[in-house]
């Protein structure tokens, strides 16, 4: 699918850019990371790298042409793709206001979000030093600082990695576009920053950081780090109550205001320790880091209350500590929740399940892997069979576009891969043209990239059908939620040895269940059933896939 690239805002005072030179021409193949063009801003001439792979289909202006920030710069997509609608959409000349939203969090003081006027180039403050949170994917609205690779005071060179940013798609490295000293962090590791909010300041020893922050806040008071006490967060509702020793529970060590170092407070919050129960070893009983690290909570005890009744039956009352752990939702999990929620409650799903005799597939796989040089999986065989079946049933290889239905002539199959944060779906492109060994190699490569968080946006875009396989986890059968923009998704269960009837006799057989989830707006029951019949015939006679 074609993707629009707008003129980026490469400096805080930039309102327009001049194309110094195009490095790619219309029709050229563009890879992720390749230089598209050199753009002359009000500060410098900078190289613009592509974050998408495809064919350059359109350029917004030739060499020497001028574009406003957020004007149409280029369109990258598939060769011969129709982009007339995209060009028309971005030819209205809408310009964004010369304003931005900035968040200035400090270590100990939370500063609220303010909408401020971007300083003009004539301002006394040099905004070359300001780095904003970039938009690293097409759906990104905010990023989480996974880690800072440079600390305040470190020397930074152009091209060096400043930080790792977790987006809604992946964790990506952010490189510096200038030399200098890192003077300010806009957020700590683990904290969120909205796109175009202040990420950091890079300058020299002479840079007045306070003046920059004051100017960014539109002339209001300079943000200073004020020490504020943070209340301890108790792990359970009983942590603040004083218990008696007769019940074998803990008595609070501290009453009223608790004195503790900021570091001790932070560690206590991370460990879920109530500071009222910690004895401080610092001056005047102040709790310090070592007190938290050496703190041992009392062992929870179970009291046995026995009351005599007429039948002398003992009654037991169990006591303990209720606890839980809350983890912030990752950007990836947010996107998964949003997209699958939209799919489940927008697309009318229906489900078709079929049993497939896998005896011949088991035998064929054993022969294919006999030489030890190849290792074809059952999932590879399913993917190959699905690709061939989609070629014969193009209505299954389709998308609902509200006022029209798109029937895709190409077959790009998404393969769901489980990772720690959720689910990624890298795409095997033109799967119907690939051999089993090629499919196996591509799927293994994608699976490793997904686990290493190395997948790029181009790896998971453009799917026309999706396969989700839980057979390796011992799942016999399940239903899957359609992965937009697809009209169908195939849920694949495990191969189980069960009694089957062959030639009038009950014999052991290898059976696999598959369930096709269909968008009823696009695919009817008869169409989905015909697709599954073709898939079944291919897997039950795998030699047909070699034709």
Q: Determine the CATH superfamily of the largest domain.
A: Chloramphenicol acetyltransferase-like domain
CATH architecture identity of the largest domain = 2-Layer Sandwich
Helical content, roughly? 10-25%
CATH class of the largest domain: Alpha Beta
The counted number of beta strands is 28
Helix-and-strand structural type? alpha+beta
Number of domains: 3
The biggest beta sheet is recorded as: 6 strands, mixed
Please provide a written account of the structure.
The chain is of the alpha+beta class. It folds into three domains: 3-89, RNA polymerase II/Efflux pump adaptor protein, barrel-sandwich hybrid domain (OB fold (Dihydrolipoamide Acetyltransferase, E2P), Beta Barrel), CATH 2.40.50; 99-216, OB fold (Dihydrolipoamide Acetyltransferase, E2P) (Beta Barrel), CATH 2.40.50; 331-546, Chloramphenicol Acetyltransferase. Helices cover 19% and strands 27% of the residues. The protein has ten helices and 28 strands. The chain has helices at 84-89, 209-216, 262-271, 289-293, 331-346, 359-368, 378-392, 436-451, 457-460, 525-540; strands at residues 3-6, 16-22, 29-30, 35-40, 45-49, 54-59, 66-68, 72-77, 99-102, 114-117, 130-132, 142-148, 155-156, 161-166, 171-175, 180-185, 192-194, 198-203, 349-357, 398-400, 405-407, 413-415, 417-419, 422-424, 427-428, 465-469, 488-502, 505-519. The strands form eight sheets. A six-stranded mixed beta sheet has the order 19-28-27-26-22-25. Helix 7 (378-392) packs across helix 8 (436-451) and helix 7 crosses helix 10 (525-540). The relative contact order is 0.08. Mean pLDDT is 79; it is low at 93-124, 219-250 and 301-309.
